[in-house]
Amino acid sequence: MEIRNWIFALILCHAALVLTSCAVELARSPPTERISGSAGDVLEDDPVGRLKVFVYELPSKYNKKILQKDQRCLNHMFAAEIYMHRFLLSSPVRTLNPAEADWFYTPVYTTCDLTPNGLPLPFKSPRMMRSAIQLISSNWPYWNRTEGADHFFVVPHDFGACFHYQEEKAIERGILTMLRRATLVQTFGQRNHVCLKEGSITVPPYAPPQKMQSHLIPERTPRAIFVYFRGLFYDVGNDPEGGYYARGARAAVWENFKDNPLFDISTEHPTTYYEDMQRAVFCLCPLGWAPWSPRLVEAVVFGCIPVIIADDIVLPFADAIPWEEIGVFVDEKDVPNLDTILTSIPPEIILRKQRLLANPSMKQAMLFPQPAQPGDAFHQVLNGLARKLPHDKSIYLAPGEKVLNWTAGPLGDLKPW
Amino acid sequence: MMKLSALQQSYLNRRPGSFRGAAPLDSSADGANKSPAAVFWLVLHGLCCLISLVLGFRFSRLVFFFIFSTSITTNTNHFMAPFRQLTTTTTAADVASDLPSNPVGDAALNGTRVVVGRHGIRIRPWPHPDPIEVMKAHQIIERVQREQRNQFVVKNPRTVIAVTPTYVRTFQTLHLTGVVHSLMLVPYDVVWIVVEAGGVTNETAAIISKSGVKTIHIGVDEKMPNTWEGRHKLEAKMRLRALRVVREKRLDGIVMFADDSNVHSMELFDEIQSTKWFGAVSIGILAHSGGAEELSSFAAVEKEVEEKEKKQAIPVQGPACNASSKLAGWHTFDPQPYEGNSAIFIDDRATVLPMKLEWAGFVLNSRLLWKDVEDKPHWSRDLDSVVDDDIESPLSLLKDPSMVEPLGSCGKQVLLWWLRVEARADSKFPAG
Predict the structure, then answer these.
(1) A44 CB within 8 Å of a chain B CB
(2) In this complex, is the C-beta atom of A27 within 8 Å of any C-beta atom belonging to chain B?
(3) Which of A244, B1, B227, B262 sits a CA distance of 20 to 30 A from A234?
C-alpha cells in the first residue's frame, strides 16, 4: 500500500512539473534561445574581479584636446575609442596602482582627425601613437618591462593599426612596429591579413544606441521584406567602374538582383531605415572598402538575420558569439546565386536564427551604451582580456633587452608629433 | 609599362574623393625624365582619352587589355570590365571560366584566397528572378510571420458575437461583403447576428451565407425610414433585439457591433478579447462631404485641403484616459463645423454625421445580458428593464458608466473606422 502511495505522489509531482513548464512556455514573451558560444555562455560573464586595468594619464593633447577640436568624433563609427576610455575611467576594474595591474591602457584618440566631410585621416596617427608610447615608456617602467605585451590599445580605424584607409597601402605599412607585441582592440578582422595580428580582440563598430532604441517598432509588425539593403553598390567617386570597391561583390549584388522583387536594395537614404530593417527577414552586410560595417550591429539589434558577404572576415567577439549559427555566410563568388542560397535555407533554421538574435544578451554585446551596462561591448572586451590572463612568463623581458625596432617603418612616421 | 602602372595608380587614389592631393603618388615622380618612350606613352594616352570622350567609355583600357592581356599580371581575374555594358553573354563565358591559376601581384598574400585589387563583377547568365524561388521565399516569409503572430496569441480566445443591423438597399452588397470578409479573417470563433429591417429577405441571406461563419438572421418588420435620425433609432432597436437573442440563446462570448458600412481592423478583434465586462474602443470618424462638392474646381479643393490641414486631422470618438490610464471621460464627435450642412435624408449628398457616441465603439461580455448569472456586476442594468425608445448608446445598459474598460492602449489606438455611404434612392447596384 505504501509503495502505491509513493508512486501516486511521484506521478502527481511529475504532472505538476509538466504543467508548470507548459504554463511558462505560454507566457507572452518572444521566444529566445540561449547562446552557447564556443566557450560556453561567455556573453554573460562578469569581468569585475577577474582583471585589473591601469589607465595611463596622458596629457590632454592626446585625447581631450583632440575631442574638443571636433565633437563629431563622439558619433561616428570609430567612437568606440573615446567611449572605452570613459568607461575604463569609472569602471570597477580600474586600478590606480600599476603594480597590481594585469593590463595597461593608453588613451590616445588616433581616429579623431576628421576631414570636413567627417572621414578620419590616418596620416598623423602613427606619429601620434609613437609619441604616446615614447611618453609612457619614459615615464613608467611598465612598457619596457614587456615592450607592450601586457598593454592594449583601441584602434578602430578601417584597417586597425596599419593606419591607412587604402588596403594596399595598409598592407604595405603593416601593423605599427611598436604595437606588434601589444593586444589590439580593433574593428577590422580578416583572416590571414597583415593588419590582424593574433590575439587581437575584434569589436563591433560604434552605433549610437539611443538612436536605434528610438526607432523601435512594435514586435508584432510582420516581417514582410525578404532581403533588405541600403548603401552604395558602386563608389562612383573613387571606383566608377566597379571591381575595386568591395571586390566587385556589391556591384554583383546590384547587377544580379536589381529587378528581383524579393530584394529591397537601393542606394537611397530613407528616414525609415531602422524601421525597415525591423520588417525584413534578411539584411545584407557586404564588405565595402573594408570588410566590416555597422550594418552588422544594426541587423543584430533589429533582429534581422545578417547575410555576411566578405571572404575570410573575422566578426566581433568571434570566440564568444557563434556567428555561424546566427548569420548566413555567403562567399563572394557565390553572390550571383544569393537568391537560391537564401531561399533554400529550411524555415526551422531561419526561425532558430531569429530566436538567437532575439536574445537580449546578444544585442547588448554589440552596443556601447552610456552609461555602460552589464553584458555590453565594453564588458565583452574586458572578458576577452580576462580570458588572455594569466600572462605567459615569456613576455617579460630582461632589463635593457629590446625586441622591437623603434626606427622601423616609413620615414614619415618617425617625425615627432 | 611605367605608364600602365601610373594608370593603375590613378585608380588607387581612393577615399575621400575630394582628397586627392595628400596620398603620395610615388610613381608619378618618375615622369620627370622625358625619354622618348615616356613621350610616346603620353601621346598614346592622350589619344585614348580623346577617343574615350567620343565613344563614351574607357577606350584606353580596351586597348591595353587587347595588347597586353597576357602580360598584365598586377592582379587577378581581369575580367572584361568594359564589355559588361556591351553583351552579357561574353561575361557569361568568363564567369564559366575559372580564376587564373597564379594570382601574382604586389598584394597577394600566402595562404589566403582573398586578393586585393580589381576583381570582375560576377553576373550570372540570366540575372532575373526565378518564380520557384520567389514562391519559396514567400513561404519562408509566411512561416516567419506565423511564428511572430504566435507570440501574441490570446490564451483563452472567446467567441466573437458580431451584431449587424442591415436592410436592403443599393450599397448593401458592398458594405455587407466588407463585413463578411472581415469576419472570415477573424482567427476566433464567430457568431454573426444579422438583424434586417423590413423582414428577412433572400438577398441578405444570400450575402451572409457566403461568409462561412455561423449566422443568425433575424427580421424586424418595421421598414427602414429614409431619414438618418430615424435610421439611427431603428438601428438601436434592432441591436437591442439582437441582444435579446443573445440572452435567450445564452450565447457565450464577446458582443461587438459590426455596422455594415464600417471598416474593422483585425487588431480590433484581438483587442476585444481582453474585455472583462464592458469595454470601449476608439473609432475614427470618416465624415465626408458628398461627391458634388468635391468635384468643384481644383482651386476650391486646394483651399479645402489647406483648411482641413489647419483643423484637426480626423475626429476620433472613444474613451479618454487620464494620466494614470483610468477612464476619465469621452471624446465625442463635435458636429459644430458641419452645422447646417449635414445630411437629413439617407440619399442626401451632404455630410453624414455620427451620433455623439456610436454603438460600434462598445463591446460587452455576453454574460452581462444573461438572466440569472451570479457574478454579474451590480452596475449593469438588466436587459428587460431597458425601454427601447430611450436608448441612445450602450452606456444606457449600465448604471455606472465609469466602469467601462478603455481598450486599445487606453483609446490611443484607432481600431475601427466609421463610415456611412449610401447611394441615391433611384440607383441600382450592378447585378451578379
Answers:
(1) no
(2) no
(3) B1
Q: Distance (Å, rounded) from C-alpha A407 to C-alpha A134?
A: 12
Among the listed residues B163, B178, B186, the one whose alpha carbon sits nearest the alpha carbon of residue B269: B186
List Cα–Cα distances, A236 to A241, B14, B69, B157, B180, in angstroms. Answer: 8, 11, 26, 57, 54
Rounded (5°) CA angle B40-B42-B47 = 95
Pairing of strands A280-286, A305-309: parallel
Contact check, Cβ <8 Å, B123/A333: no
Q: Report the gap between the CA of A288 and the closest CA in chain B (Å).
A: 12
Q: Min CA distance, A69 vs chain B (Å)?
A: 20
The arrangement of strands across the sheet holding A201-202 comes to A53-55, A103-105, A151-154, A183-186, A201-202
A157 close to A128: Cβ distance less than 8 angstroms: no
- Minimum-distance CB partner of B140 among A252, A337, A347: A347
By the CB < 8 Å criterion, does A210 face chain B? no
Residues B149 and B143: their CA atoms lie apart, in Å, by: 10
Nearest CA in chain B to A345: B140
Of A259, A333, A350, the CB nearest to B128: A259
Strands A201-202 and A183-186: parallel
- Return d(Cα B105, Cα B72) in angstroms, integer: 10
The three-state secondary structure class of A135 is helix
Answer yes or no: is pLDDT of A309 > 60.
yes
Gap from A250 CA to chain B (nearest CA, Å): 9
Q: Lowest mean pLDDT of A250-259, A279-288, B88-97, B109-118, name the range.
A: B88-97
- Output the furthest CA–CA distance in chain B (Å, rounded): 113
For residue A25, pLDDT over 70 is answered with no
Written as nine digits, the cell of A54 is 591601469
Instruction: Assess B377–A contact: CB distance below 8 Å, yes or no.
Output: no
Chain B touched by A312 (CB under 8 Å): yes
Phi, psi for A402 (deg, rounded to 5):
-125, 130
Residue of B nearest to A290 (CA): B116
By C-alpha distance, the chain A residue nearest B117 is A244
Residue B255 burial (C-beta neighbours within 10 Å; 0-12, 13-18, 19+): buried
pLDDT per position as a tens digit, A215-244: 999 888 999 999 999 999 998 888 888 888
Cβ B90 vs Cβ B83: under 8 Å? yes
Residues of A in contact with B139 (CB under 8 A): 347
- The answer to whether residue B25 scores a pLDDT higher than 50 is no
Does the domain at A2-41+208-364 match CATH 3.40.50? Answer given as yes
Do the interacting molecules here have an ipTM over 0.85? no
Chain B CB contacts of A31 below 8 Å: 151
Say whether residue A238 is in contact with chain B using an 8 A CB cutoff: yes
Q: Provide CATH 3.40.50 ranges for chain A.
A: 2-41+208-364
Which candidate in B140, B270, B413 is best for mutational testing of the A interface (most A CBs within 10 A)? B140
Q: Is A96 a residue whose pLDDT tops 80?
A: yes
The yes-or-no verdict on residue A13 having pLDDT over 80 is: no
The yes-or-no verdict on residue B376 having pLDDT over 50 is yes
For the packed helices A80-89 and A377-387, what is the interaxial angle rounded to 10 degrees? 70
Cβ-contact B361, B282 below 8 angstroms: yes
Q: How many residues does chain B have?
A: 432
Nearest of B341, B362, B361, B360 to residue B352 by alpha carbon: B341
The Cα A92–Cα B372 span in angstroms is 67
Nearest residue to A247 via CA among A316, A309, A196: A309
| B399-417 pLDDT tens trace | 887 888 888 888 788 889 9
Measured in residues, chain A has a length of: 417
Chain B: residue nearest A119 by CA? Answer: B16
